[in-house]
Amino acid sequence: MNAQKAGMARLFLAAPDLRASAWMMNSSVFLKLCVAYEHACLRRDGLRCAAEKDDEALIGCEAECRSLEAAAVTYIRTQRQFSGLR
Predict the structure, then answer these.
(1) What would the pLDDT profile of 5-19 be if each residue is shown by its tens digit?
(2) Among candidate residues 64, 68, 62, the one with its CA nearest the CA of residue 29
(3) pTM, 2 dp
């Protein structure tokens, strides 16, 4: 699975209400957010599984994941509001 599809799948798990927005599959902004989200999640997962824990890095990565998730949700909701898309 490529990073774009994996990131999209993770976003759909985190925010199930996004699934109904078929138009976003053609949105370059949303697809870039998916890739960035996947990379951040992979870094977070690696930090979670690391033998030597780096709590500060993990906290920072968790915050980055939440921020990207919120950005994707906000972007889609804003697009829906102003374009009438569902």
Answers:
(1) 999 889 888 888 777
(2) 68
(3) 0.84
